[in-house]
Design brief:
Low-confidence stretches: 184-199
Organism: Dorcoceras hygrometricum
Largest sheet: none
Function: Involved in the retrieval of endoplasmic reticulum membrane proteins from the early Golgi compartment.
Shape: globular
Distance between the termini: 85 Å
Main location: membrane
Pfam family, one: Rer1
GO biological process, one term: protein retention in ER lumen
Structural class: mainly alpha
Amino acid sequence: MNMGGRAGITGENPTSSVVTQFNHTLWQRYQHLLDKSTPFVLYRWIFLSVIAFLYALRIYMVQGFYITTYGLGIYILQLLIAFLSPQVDPEIHELTDGPTLPTRGSDEFRPFVRRLPEFKFWHSLAKAFCFVFVLTFFSAFDVPVFWPILLFYWLILFISTMKRQIMHMIKYKYVPFTFGKQRFGKKAASAEETITSRP
């Protein structure tokens, strides 16, 4: 029984094994490139801007694929909201004893932790732009539609969503960007020196 099982394992299709190995190697190299690109924030966003410009140029040249562009716009809006939202939503965890966002200047400094980190935000956008760019080479995805209506609807959706997000920021007093650790001013530093110099 065991020998038959071993024979079945050794008798696997060598072509599928080679394809699996190739896919694994390709995925490892891709992941290695992603890991190396992590600290180069500016270059990554420049690269994404080039891809977005090429996609916009492609749409302008073919004068079509407005449905795919609208879908891309909805996806970008969804990613943006996740990028601007805290990992722990204070609205959900308002009554719990868990960690909350600092609301006063005297609170301990805690950097803003996003629901969607910057790298994942960039990576998702880059993949989305590459995907829809490939779709523009297939006429099946070029559904005829009156694009100003789609643009108007997307703008209304964007404005209402961002308004809700900004109201959420104001209500729970957080800013979705961290500019480094807060530093004490001269008054705070002199007060601290006075306290430490006392016997």
